[in-house]
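Please decode residue identities from the backbone states below.
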């Protein structure tokens, strides 16, 4: 049974925390309050490993918002909150893709579900009646109390100073934010939080999720079948020839990488290194996608259980291994580029993509060897992408990039990129190195990005505090 006061408190907390403040400590405070209320009302959710994992990811991303306060950390937080909403709908849900989709559908359908429940239930009517009976007396009592507060403040200096401090701190907020705006934020907070408590299964996703399995099952053919008994041997021979040819092509590519990327990279210019890096990254991503498609195509159905297919599996392992070598080659090119021309956001992202691609290759290997399904691939790689996004958002990469590049000689530093290409989170580092910055950029360092938003503990974050 849903407790109405949980929804009311969460809607008031949402309005107080987020309007008109920036994101900061309010994100972690609201997430913690939401999780506490959710587990108090539905304690069985705490027994589900995926729900607990999602809660941990959500709180970690909320801490990243408070400490790092970057776009990636905010994006990771919102995705984590969406996954938490999906897993909160049904405890039996397993597939991360269905959890994200069910979270989106619940955001759209949750408010209508709430209104329909109010229309056919009397649960909330006593609350409305009780509130209505006490609003008038509370308003009269508040009006009568005002002159007594003034008189007590005039007769007691300590009490008067306390009143001045309290009202001086909170009255500007009360008068700046109109009652209508505050109520509007409460309604928005109610619409965002009510799907966590009123569960549903829009689109019947739970049935689809229950039909999914990480293991492949052998399909027994009926005696009367139009499929030729030679279909599996033909598919096996096609796969063997295809993967043999692909291994030869990729072997030639890897030999080129050994020649120019591993043994003699020093002679490459900046343009050549940049082209070599980006082309290698694109080739890697396309080859991984092609590898997934090819493996899924040839190792589908009963070919996974075909006895003589051992050479095909070995050929596939060799191809996946060569793709892994290509990933290390691109990582080496990225390292050479950073060593010669400095660190940048795109070069950091290349590193994360390479590690994620290696995870994809490993899951493909497990799919072939242990006869895993497409569900297994999507589940593991989806969770890996989510965790990698949380890890990426947990670091102030603007500060890291600035620190690394400032260790180079001033003439080798790309000041245009450090001053204008990165966000504000490196401002304190640029101020500390003000004397090294060329004159044409010094004015931008002193005057740029000094807009201070409406600020108190709710919008506090370490990045802005460090800059101040």
């Amino acid at each position: 049974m849903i407790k109405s006061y949980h929804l009311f408190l969460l809607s008031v907390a949402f309005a107080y925390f987020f309007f008109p403040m920036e994101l900061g400590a309010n994100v972690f405070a609201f997430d913690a309050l939401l999780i506490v209320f959710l587990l108090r009302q539905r304690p069985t959710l705490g027994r589900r490993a995926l729900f607990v994992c999602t809660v941990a990811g959500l709180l970690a991303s909320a801490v990243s918002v408070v400490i790092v306060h970057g776009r990636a950390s905010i994006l990771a937080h919102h995705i984590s909150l969406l996954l938490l909403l999906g897993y909160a709908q049904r405890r039996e849900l397993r597939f991360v893709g269905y959890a994200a989709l069910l979270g989106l559908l619940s955001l759209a359908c949750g408010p209508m579900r709430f209104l329909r429940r109010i229309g056919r239930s009397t649960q909330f009517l006593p609350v409305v009646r009780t509130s209505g009976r006490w609003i008038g007396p509370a308003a009269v009592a508040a009006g009568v109390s005002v002159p007594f507060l003034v008189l007590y403040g005039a007769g007691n200096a300590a009490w008067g100073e306390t009143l001045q401090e309290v009202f001086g701190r909170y009255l500007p907020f009360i008068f700046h934010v109109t009652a209508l705006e505050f109520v509007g934020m409460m309604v928005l907070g109610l619409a965002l939080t009510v799907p966590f408590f009123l569960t549903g299964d829009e689109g019947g996703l739970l049935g689809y999720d229950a039909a999914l399995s990480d293991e492949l099952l052998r399909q027994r053919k009926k005696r009367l079948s139009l499929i030729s008994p030679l279909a599996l041997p033909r598919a096996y021979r096609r796969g063997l020839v295809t993967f043999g040819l692909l291994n030869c092509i990729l072997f030639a590519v890897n030999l080129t990488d050994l020649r120019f990327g591993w043994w003699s990279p020093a002679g490459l210019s900046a343009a050549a290194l940049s082209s070599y890096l980006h082309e290698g990254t694109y080739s890697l991503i396309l080859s991984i996608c092609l590898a997934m498609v090819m493996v899924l195509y040839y190792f589908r159905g009963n070919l996974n259980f075909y006895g003589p297919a051992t050479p095909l599996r070995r050929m596939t392992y060799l191809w996946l291994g060569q793709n892994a070598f290509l990933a290390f080659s691109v990582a080496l090119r990225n390292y050479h580029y950073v060593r010669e021309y400095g660190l940048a956001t795109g070069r950091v992202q290349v590193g994360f993509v390479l590690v994620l691609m290696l995870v994809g290759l490993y899951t493909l290997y497990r799919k072939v060897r242990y006869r895993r399904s497409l569900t297994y691939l999507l589940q593991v790689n989806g969770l890996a992408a989510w965790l990698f996004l949380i890890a990426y958002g947990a670091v102030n990469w603007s500060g890291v990039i600035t620190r690394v590049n400032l260790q180079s000689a001033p003439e080798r530093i790309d000041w245009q990129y450090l001053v204008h290409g990165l966000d504000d989170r490196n401002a304190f580092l640029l101020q500390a190195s003000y004397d090294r910055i060329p004159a044409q950029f010094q004015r931008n360092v002193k005057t740029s990005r000094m807009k201070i938003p409406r600020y108190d503990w709710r919008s506090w974050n370490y990045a802005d505090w460090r800059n101040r």
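Observation: The chain has three domains: 4-135+178-210, 231-372, 399-467.
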